[in-house]
Protein backbone atom coordinates (compact mmCIF):
# COMPACT_ATOMS: atom_id res chain seq x y z
CA UNK A 1 0.00 0.00 0.00
CA UNK A 2 2.88 2.34 0.71
CA UNK A 3 4.09 2.10 -2.88
CA UNK A 4 0.54 2.72 -4.14
CA UNK A 5 0.25 5.87 -2.02
CA UNK A 6 3.39 7.22 -3.63
CA UNK A 7 3.01 6.13 -7.25
CA UNK A 8 -0.55 4.92 -7.86
CA UNK A 9 -3.38 6.69 -9.61
CA UNK A 10 -5.62 9.06 -7.61
CA UNK A 11 -8.26 6.47 -6.79
CA UNK A 12 -5.74 3.86 -5.63
CA UNK A 13 -3.77 6.41 -3.59
CA UNK A 14 -6.96 7.49 -1.81
CA UNK A 15 -8.03 3.90 -1.19
CA UNK A 16 -4.61 3.10 0.31
CA UNK A 17 -4.85 6.11 2.65
CA UNK A 18 -8.30 5.03 3.79
CA UNK A 19 -7.24 1.40 4.30
CA UNK A 20 -4.16 2.30 6.31
CA UNK A 21 -6.26 4.67 8.41
CA UNK A 22 -8.66 1.84 9.21
CA UNK A 23 -5.82 -0.51 10.11
CA UNK A 24 -4.81 2.01 12.73
CA UNK A 25 -1.79 1.93 14.97
CA UNK A 26 -0.28 -1.18 13.38
CA UNK A 27 -0.01 0.75 10.12
CA UNK A 28 1.90 3.63 11.65
CA UNK A 29 5.45 3.99 10.47
CA UNK A 30 7.34 7.15 9.59
CA UNK A 31 7.09 6.08 5.93
CA UNK A 32 3.29 5.76 6.06
CA UNK A 33 2.90 9.15 7.73
CA UNK A 34 5.25 10.73 5.18
CA UNK A 35 3.33 9.14 2.29
CA UNK A 36 -0.01 10.44 3.63
CA UNK A 37 1.50 13.89 4.09
CA UNK A 38 2.75 13.70 0.51
CA UNK A 39 -0.79 12.86 -0.68
CA UNK A 40 -2.03 16.06 0.99
CA UNK A 41 0.09 18.03 -1.49
CA UNK A 42 -2.24 16.90 -4.28
CA UNK A 43 -5.04 19.20 -5.42
CA UNK A 44 -7.58 16.40 -5.89
CA UNK A 45 -10.31 16.86 -3.26
CA UNK A 46 -10.96 13.13 -2.90
CA UNK A 47 -7.32 12.31 -2.28
CA UNK A 48 -6.95 15.22 0.16
CA UNK A 49 -9.96 13.98 2.11
CA UNK A 50 -8.72 10.38 2.18
CA UNK A 51 -5.24 11.39 3.36
CA UNK A 52 -6.63 13.72 6.04
CA UNK A 53 -9.00 11.04 7.28
CA UNK A 54 -6.25 8.44 7.26
CA UNK A 55 -4.02 10.63 9.42
CA UNK A 56 -6.88 11.44 11.79
CA UNK A 57 -7.80 7.77 12.13
CA UNK A 58 -4.29 6.56 12.87
CA UNK A 59 -3.89 9.37 15.40
CA UNK A 60 -7.09 8.24 17.16
CA UNK A 61 -5.67 4.75 17.42
CA UNK A 62 -2.74 5.73 19.59
CA UNK A 63 -0.30 7.30 17.17
CA UNK A 64 -1.21 10.94 17.70
CA UNK A 65 2.30 12.03 18.68
CA UNK A 66 3.76 10.35 15.60
CA UNK A 67 1.24 12.08 13.34
CA UNK A 68 1.60 15.48 15.00
CA UNK A 69 5.38 15.19 14.93
CA UNK A 70 5.28 14.30 11.24
CA UNK A 71 3.04 17.26 10.47
CA UNK A 72 5.18 19.73 12.41
CA UNK A 73 8.38 18.44 10.81
CA UNK A 74 6.84 18.70 7.35
CA UNK A 75 5.56 22.23 7.93
CA UNK A 76 9.07 23.62 8.29
CA UNK A 77 10.17 25.46 5.16
CA UNK A 78 6.97 24.70 3.24
CA UNK A 79 4.79 27.07 1.27
CA UNK A 80 1.77 28.59 2.98
CA UNK A 81 -0.80 26.69 0.90
CA UNK A 82 0.58 23.30 1.91
CA UNK A 83 0.82 24.41 5.55
CA UNK A 84 -2.82 25.49 5.39
CA UNK A 85 -3.75 21.96 4.28
CA UNK A 86 -1.73 20.51 7.16
CA UNK A 87 -3.41 22.82 9.67
CA UNK A 88 -6.71 21.38 8.47
CA UNK A 89 -5.52 17.94 9.60
CA UNK A 90 -4.60 19.33 13.02
CA UNK A 91 -7.99 21.05 13.19
CA UNK A 92 -9.72 17.72 12.64
CA UNK A 93 -7.65 16.15 15.39
CA UNK A 94 -8.77 18.89 17.86
CA UNK A 95 -7.87 17.64 21.34
CA UNK A 96 -5.06 15.38 20.18
CA UNK A 97 -3.34 18.32 18.50
CA UNK A 98 -3.35 20.54 21.60
CA UNK A 99 0.33 20.04 22.33
CA UNK A 100 2.83 22.74 23.34
CA UNK A 101 4.60 22.45 19.96
CA UNK A 102 1.39 23.04 18.01
CA UNK A 103 0.29 25.88 20.28
CA UNK A 104 3.69 27.58 19.86
CA UNK A 105 3.23 27.72 16.08
Automatic annotation (TrEMBL):
InterPro entries per the UniProt record, alphabetical: ARM-like (IPR011989), ARM-type_fold (IPR016024)
The name this protein goes by in its record: HEAT repeat domain-containing protein
